[in-house]
Amino acid sequence: MNRVESIFSSLKQDGKKAIMPFLVAGHPTLTDTAEAIKCMSEQGADVIEIGIPFSDPIADGPVISAAMHEVLQSGITPSNVMKMVQNIRAEVSAALIAMVSFSIVKKSGSTSFIEALKKSGFDGVIIPDIDVQEAKELSCYCKSIGLTFTMLIAPTTTDQRIEELASISSGFLYLLARVGITGEQSELPDLEDRIAKLRNVTDLPIAVGFGISTREQVSQVHQHADAVIVGSALVRRMSESESPAETAKHFVHEIS
């Protein structure tokens, strides 16, 4: 059982739900990212998603896209991100998940890149633009070295495809709350039926993301799901702050 699985298992035993913040690696700086990860872990974030910058973000709204563009302009690379994680891993109790485009993974040699993530201290990976066949092969390799591999379930995903994606996944499933791109939203769609459908095909914890930004929305999602992923609201606040790490810490406290 790796760190992701252990955390979800412990939360379930205690009747608790997970908070999963997402940030862009290197935004505003790589030092800010490292400090924010440590602060959020100390504040109680259970699993932290770290977006590895990519020139053509998949389904990311203007806030995250702008952050990734700024980071790429500053010269941050996947190797820089992995070195940062390696340097802080011993200080962080939260599980760390890499969110990365398949083009980056494939360019570096898929299994070699995954192995490098593992060695640096990541506990799992999400590759949002990977096709199913490639995912099946890479998922098996991730499991063999102790990394979780999570697929995304969209509102438009068919029942047959849901079963297939769930069978590929480990650690947890990522349920998209809505279609379109990421970004803060004032209202959430009804998720109860969709989550119930997932429960019928998998025992994996279900994390919900896309458009969740307030404590009230987190509570609403936690009524049915095992975890809530919050990204754009955190990235925006960090970009506007003179103390990004402290802002991240306060944000996790606010939504918990």
Would you kindly provide a written description of the structure presented here, covering whatever features stand out?
It contains 12 helices and 9 strands. It is an alpha/beta fold. The protein has one domain (3-243): Aldolase class I (TIM Barrel), CATH 3.20.20.70. Helix 2 packs parallel to helix 12 and helix 6 packs parallel to helix 7. The mean pLDDT is 92.
CA radius of gyration is 17 Å
For the largest beta-sheet, the strand count, sense and barrel status come to:
9 strands, parallel
Order of helices and strands: HEHEHHEHHEHEEHEHEHEHH
Average predicted local confidence, pLDDT: 92
Low-confidence stretches: none
Helix content class: 40-55%
Number of helices: 12
